[in-house]
Amino acid sequence: MSDRAPAATPLARTAMAFVLAGGRGSRLMELTDRRAKPAVFFGGKSRIVDFALSNAINSGIRRVAVATQYKAHSLIRHLQRGWNFFRYERNESFDILPASQRVSEQNWYLGTADAVFQNIDIIEDLAPRHIVLLAGDHIYKMDYERMLAQHVEMGADVTVSCMVVPREEAKGFGVMAVDERSWITDFVEKPAEPPGLPDRPDVSLASMGIYVFDTRFLIDQLRRDAADEASTHDFGKDIIPYIVAHGRAAAHRYELSCVRSSHESTPYWRDVGTIDAYWEANIDLTDIVPPLDLYDQAWPIWTYGEVTPPAKFVHDEAGRRGEAISSLVSGGCIISGAAARRSLLFTGVHLHSYAKLEGAVLLPSVDVGQGARLTKVVVDRGVRIPAGMVVGEDPVEDARRFRLTEKGVCLITQPMLDQLA
Q: What's the short name of a Pfam family annotated to this entry (predicted)?
C-alpha cells in the first residue's frame, strides 16, 4: 500500500461553465447582421465563442452550458457540429440554452443575470459545486482551475477576473478598487471617469466579465435580484456591485491564470468588438511571432473541424504566380495565379489569376475575381468580389461603396456589392 495521500480532485471537475453568448455585437456592424458576435469567425477556422469553451475544456471543466439569444442559428449550428463530444455516461454535459420564455411567457433574457436565472432548474439538476460564468465574445487563453483555487482559498462569495487597462479604455468595462489582500472595495460599471490605481493613476483595474460563484450563493442572489423591480438584471450593473457592498468579492488578476506558450511574451486578451479591433487581431496572427499562439498543442483551441482538401497554390509565371507571404491559408483554399501578403484566408477561399491581397481578412468561401486588388479589408462569408475591383487605394470611393472605418479598414458584404450592380 502506498503511503502517499490521494491527490485532491481538481475543482474544475465539480464546476460548471455557463457561457453568456447572446450578445449582438452591434459595433461589428454588418458582420453581425446574420450572426451573434460569439459566432463571428476568427483566426482562420474558429469562432469567437470557441475560446471560452476551449478554456473550459482545457481547464478540466466537463459541464458546460451556453445561453444564446440574438440571431442564434449559426451559433447553435456551430455548437451542435463542433461541441457534441460530451458524454453523459462520463459525467459530462453540454447544454445549449436559447431564450425560450421558460420562466415568464412575456420575457426573453432581460440581462446577463436573467439569462442564468431563467435556467436555475437546469443548474440545480446538475448540482455543480461552483459556477464559472463566462462571456462568449473575447479572445484569450486562461486556466479557470487557478481562479477556482483562489476563490476557495479566500472563501469569497464571488471572484472577479480582472486586468490592468489604460484609463481611457476602462470606460467600456466594469472598474474596481481593491485592497492589499485583493478584496474588492468598490465596483462601478462603465464609468465616464474611471478611477486609476493608487500607485498608477494612468491605468484602471477592469473586470473581464469572468466570475466564479459558489452555486448555492449564486442562486440565492439571482432570486433576490429577480424580485427587485428596480434592477436591470445584469451582473456588472447589479449583482456584482450588490455583493461588493454586502458580501465578500475578491479580485483575481488575469496574469495569475493566463495561459502562455514559450512564444507568448505577455498575457493576451482581446475584445474584437469593432471592425478595426477584429481586423487587427486577425492580421496580428500573420506576424512571425504572433502575440497569440494558436499552435500551442498544450492548450488547443477546439472548434468544428470541417473536412476540406489541402490548400492549393497553382501557376508559376511572371505576374501570375500562386503565392502567400506572411499569411495564414486555411484548408480548401485555392490560390490560382494570385498573391496574398500579410493576409488571413478562412476555409474555402478562391483567389483567381492576377488578384492581389495586402492585409486582407477573407471569411469562408470568399471568391476573388481576376485582377482584383484588396488592401486592408474584411470580406464577409461567401462574398463574390468582381474581376478587376480595387479596394483600399481610394478612401473616398471605398466609403461610397462599403463600410470604411476611422482607421481605414474596409468591410465588404454581398448586399453592399449587390447595391452597386
A: Hexapep_GlmU
To the question of whether residue 278 is assigned a binding role by annotation, the answer is no
* Cα distances (Å, whole numbers) of residue 122 to 58, 63, 64, 191, 223: 23, 11, 11, 34, 15
**What are the strands, taking DSSP E only, across 29-80?**
41-42, 46-47, 63-68
Terminal-residue alpha carbon distance, the chain = 80
Sign of CA dihedral 85, 88, 94, 98: positive
Mean pLDDT (the chain) is 93
Listed in sequence order, the residues at least 6 apart from 271 whose beta carbon sits closer than 8 Å to its beta carbon are 137, 138, 139, 172, 277
**171 annotated among ligand-binding-site residues:** no
pLDDT digits (tens, 9 = 90+) for 130-162: 999 999 999 999 999 999 999 999 999 999 999
pLDDT at residue 36, rounded to an integer = 92
Alpha helices in 87-228 (DSSP H): 112-117, 120-126, 144-154, 215-226
Residues 6+ apart with CB under 8 A from 403: 29, 30, 275, 410, 411, 412, 413, 416
With residue 7 as reference, give the H or E element that holds it: none
Can you tell me whether residue 332 is helix, strand or coil? coil
Torsion angles phi and psi, residue 244, rounded to 5: -60, -40
Residue type, 242: Y
Structural contact between residues 318 and 256, judged by C-beta atoms closer than 8 angstroms = no
207 labeled part of a ligand binding site: yes
Grid coordinates representing 412 are 465588404
Please answer whether residues 353 and 337 qualify as being in contact, where contact means their C-beta atoms are separated by less than 8 angstroms.
yes
pTM: 0.93
What count of Cα atoms within 13 Å lies in the side-chain half-sphere of residue 408? 10
Is 174 within any annotated ligand binding site?
Answer: yes
Pairing of strands 249-253, 130-135: unpaired
194, 176 contact by CB (below 8 A):
no
Q: What angle do CA 177, 179, 185 make, to 5 degrees?
A: 45
State whether residue 215 is helix, strand or coil: helix
User: What's the pLDDT score for residue 4?
Assistant: 39
Q: Give which of 164, 364, 325, 362 is closest to 252, Cα–Cα.
A: 164
* E strand or H helix that includes residue 162: strand 158-166
CB contact at 8 A, 24 and 40: no
Q: Please name the residue that has the C-alpha cell 447589479.
A: 238
In this prediction, residues 276-289 reach a mean pLDDT of 97
Rounded to the nearest 10 degrees, the angle between the axes of helix 73-82 and helix 49-59 is 30
| Dihedral angle over CA of 95, 126, 246, 142, nearest 10 | -50
2 annotated as ligand-binding: no
